[in-house]
């Protein structure tokens, strides 16, 4: 079972790339972030044409998450973490969606960026991470195979970025951000990519600016965290880097983990 995450940076703008990737790699579950589409505008029919069923949590112009499953209907178990955005009266942003697929609970997250730091957006980021940790503790307590995947907007270690000094002032690398992520690992969750790449040096994001892609100035912020039931069954992980270099790509690239069948 291949579980993948892909910050698509606009599901309509990147639809050709997304369909191309789905058909060429065929993950069982694909979690999307930054779909940037209202619920009624999500192109579910395009995915159905190639055999994928979808659920989604949209928002106009910003954010938005979706879970696609190959040949089966994702059974939604939760949407949202019950935390309002940083602006007064804004309400909850579309950043969390959870479903059961093939005996596995999959949560798709788009964690707040947090810039500029310091400020209300960074405070919101840390508060959101606290809510996420609480939800992950609930999932852990259920003792079910679970994967919490997506754009965490956290660079966990210095070897997860091309140049630590270049990102030192960014919200993605602040001690509070890194500590909140480290707490999830301390709770027992396994970082799938780090497990098979202990020396780091794996990027999942390259900015559109300053020739970052051409110069390989990237960093790792797209993560797949697994409960022990799944972590023990990891057979492979990968970053589909080539899709970042194709025409009109997202600034992220797909990341995936392969899980062996139980028993």
UniProtKB/TrEMBL annotation:
<dbReference type="GO" id="GO:0008311">
    <property type="term" value="F:double-stranded DNA 3'-5' DNA exonuclease activity"/>
</dbReference>
<feature type="site" description="Important for catalytic activity">
    <location>
        <position position="222"/>
    </location>
</feature>
<dbReference type="GO" id="GO:0006281">
    <property type="term" value="P:DNA repair"/>
</dbReference>
<keyword id="KW-0378">Hydrolase</keyword>
<feature type="domain" description="Endonuclease/exonuclease/phosphatase">
    <location>
        <begin position="4"/>
        <end position="252"/>
    </location>
</feature>
<feature type="binding site">
    <location>
        <position position="34"/>
    </location>
    <ligand>
        <name>Mg(2+)</name>
    </ligand>
</feature>
<feature type="binding site">
    <location>
        <position position="251"/>
    </location>
    <ligand>
        <name>Mg(2+)</name>
    </ligand>
</feature>
<dbReference type="Pfam" id="PF03372">
    <property type="entry name" value="Exo_endo_phos"/>
</dbReference>
<dbReference type="InterPro" id="IPR037493">
    <property type="entry name" value="ExoIII-like"/>
</dbReference>
<keyword id="KW-0460">Magnesium</keyword>
<protein>
    <submittedName>
        <fullName>Exodeoxyribonuclease III</fullName>
        <ecNumber>3.1.11.2</ecNumber>
    </submittedName>
</protein>
<feature type="site" description="Transition state stabilizer">
    <location>
        <position position="153"/>
    </location>
</feature>
<feature type="active site">
    <location>
        <position position="110"/>
    </location>
</feature>
<dbReference type="GO" id="GO:0046872">
    <property type="term" value="F:metal ion binding"/>
</dbReference>
<dbReference type="InterPro" id="IPR005135">
    <property type="entry name" value="Endo/exonuclease/phosphatase"/>
</dbReference>
<feature type="active site" description="Proton acceptor">
    <location>
        <position position="252"/>
    </location>
</feature>
<feature type="binding site">
    <location>
        <position position="252"/>
    </location>
    <ligand>
        <name>Mg(2+)</name>
    </ligand>
</feature>
<dbReference type="InterPro" id="IPR036691">
    <property type="entry name" value="Endo/exonu/phosph_ase_sf"/>
</dbReference>
<comment type="similarity">
    <text>Belongs to the DNA repair enzymes AP/ExoA family.</text>
</comment>
<keyword id="KW-0464">Manganese</keyword>
<feature type="binding site">
    <location>
        <position position="153"/>
    </location>
    <ligand>
        <name>Mg(2+)</name>
    </ligand>
</feature>
<dbReference type="InterPro" id="IPR004808">
    <property type="entry name" value="AP_endonuc_1"/>
</dbReference>
<feature type="site" description="Interaction with DNA substrate">
    <location>
        <position position="252"/>
    </location>
</feature>
<feature type="binding site">
    <location>
        <position position="151"/>
    </location>
    <ligand>
        <name>Mg(2+)</name>
    </ligand>
</feature>
<feature type="active site" description="Proton donor/acceptor">
    <location>
        <position position="151"/>
    </location>
</feature>
<keyword id="KW-0479">Metal-binding</keyword>
<feature type="binding site">
    <location>
        <position position="7"/>
    </location>
    <ligand>
        <name>Mg(2+)</name>
    </ligand>
</feature>
């Amino acid at each position: 079972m291949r579980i993948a995450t892909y910050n698509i940076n606009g599901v309509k703008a990147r639809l050709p790339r997304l369909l191309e990737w789905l058909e060429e790699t065929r993950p069982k579950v694909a979690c999307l972030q930054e779909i940037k589409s209202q619920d009624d505008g999500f192109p579910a029919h395009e995915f159905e044409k190639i055999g994928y069923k979808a659920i989604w949590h949209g928002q106009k112009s910003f954010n938005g998450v979706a879970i696609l499953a190959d040949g089966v209907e994702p059974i939604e178990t939760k949407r949202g973490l019950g935390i309002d955005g940083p602006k007064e009266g804004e309400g909850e942003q579309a950043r969390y969606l959870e479903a059961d697929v093939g005996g596995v609970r999959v949560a798709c997250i788009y964690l707040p960026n947090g810039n500029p730091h310091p400020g209300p957006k960074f405070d919101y980021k840390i508060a959101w991470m606290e809510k996420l940790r609480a939800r992950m503790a609930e999932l852990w307590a259920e003792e079910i195979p679970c994967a919490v995947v997506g754009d965490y907007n956290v660079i966990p270690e210095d070897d997860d970025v091309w140049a630590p000094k270049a990102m030192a002032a960014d919200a993605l690398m602040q001690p509070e951000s890194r500590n909140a992520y480290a707490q999830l690992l301390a709770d027992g969750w396994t970082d799938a990519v780090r497990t098979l790449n202990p020396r780091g040096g794996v990027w999942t994001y390259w900015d559109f600016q300053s020739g970052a892609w051409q110069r390989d100035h990237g960093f790792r912020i797209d993560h797949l965290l697994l409960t022990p039931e799944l972590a023990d069954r990891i057979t492979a992980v990968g970053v589909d880097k080539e899709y970042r270099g194709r025409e009109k790509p997202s600034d992220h690239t797909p990341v995936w983990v392969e899980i062996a069948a139980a028993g």
